Amino acid sequence: FLSGTYRPTGALPPARREVQALGSEASECKALARAALAMAEGTPDQVRTLLADSNQRAKWSPQGQVEAASLMGESWLASGQPALALPYLESALDAARRKASQVQDQAGSIVGEWVGIHTLTLLARAHAELGDPLNAARVIEDNQSRRLRPTGPRNPTEESRPRADRPALGRAPGAGRRGS
Can you give the pLDDT at residue 49? Predict the structure, then answer.
């Protein structure tokens, strides 16, 4: 959809024209395009109206369901209701993780492509607005660069040591310290 290319640039009138050209026939893509445009135009109530039918959303593709959940969560967050946003945003992340677990070699990219950093940021923001900054940080930490992390168990003793006491990569333990 051309409307999707206009929205990020802030060109909402051309995006609106493209969405209107879609016609009134109901479909997953059309509903998501209309809801995304409504969110970009700052009308979160309209997003919820467009995506209100959970029975209809249940018939959509898994990726469409993730996008709808993300938009619903964003709409509640924009309306100052982080508690109502949280279940939608968590649902989007959970669905993407389920899909990623089915495709082992592309797990990181599936979560990134289906949920995206925007939804993770919204989820972290919802936790922060609910007075839970640790969960906000956990959301970001748990979902960044998953493919670059070691797969073995973590060593809590190593993680709890102060940074200065840990050996740096490519440096002998104790090298670079005063008095060494």
Answer: 94
Alpha carbon 164 to its chain centroid, in Å, reads 33
pLDDT digits (tens, 9 = 90+) for 91-102: 998 887 777 777
Q: Which two tokens stand for residue 37?
A: 């445009």
Is residue 96 within 8 A of residue 129, CB to CB? The reply is: no
> b/e per residue, 9-38, with b = 16+ CB within 10 A?
eeebeebbebbeeeeeeeebebbbbbbbbb
3-state secondary structure of 170: coil
Q: Check if the beta carbon of residue 153 is closer than 8 Å to that of residue 104.
A: no
pLDDT in tens, 47-88: 999 999 888 888 988 888 999 999 999 999 999 999 999 999
How many other C-beta atoms lie within 10 A of the C-beta of residue 127?
23
